[in-house]
Design goal:
Blueprint (H helix, E strand, L loop, with lengths): L2 E8 L1 H5 L3 H10 L3 E8 L3 H7 L9 H8 L4 E9 L1 H9 L12 H5 L8 E3 L3 H11 L10
Antiparallel strand pairs: 1-3, 1-4, 2-3
Helix pairs in contact: 3-4
Bound molecules: adenosine-5'-diphosphate (ADP) and magnesium ion.
Length: 142
Amino acid sequence: MAIERTLSIIKPDGVERNLIGKVLTKFEDAGLKVVGARLMHLSVREAELFYWVHRERGFFGELVEFMSRSAVFVTVLEGENAVAANRDIMGATNPENAAEGTIRKEFALSIGENTVHGSDSQENAANEIAFFFSGTELHGAR
Ligand code: ADP
Ligand code: MG
């Protein structure tokens, strides 16, 4: 196992419902450390670019509209096996399929408004971290 970094976003439904603290507690209790953080409101263009890989999917327009409707809380999480660990803590995309104790099981409203984003591979984590943060904005072990 190696120390990794991954990108996490608390989506508009989470920030709107005052869930930043509860979500971060899930990460911290699991041993992931917040090494970068930013509260921001994505433009439509920024949301499109971030989710560009999904541009052909039927839900793309809905996803972009949702992600740009209000503020998001973007963090970089660092820890053992952080990419997979974060995905485990998040739970399945559809909250109906999410395991007990996961963020999406406890907080998600629907498959679209599912409270958190998390990188799905180390390569995507590196790209997504660079999308939001410069090196001097990150304050971890390296
Ligand atoms: P994950 O966020 O678990 O990695 P995906 O990468 O497949 O899931 O999808 C990205 C995001 O798009 C999801 O988190 C969710 O917000 C939205 N989404 C995925 N599938 C649907 C769907 N069938 N209808 C509406 N929104 C969806
Ligand atoms: Mg994904």
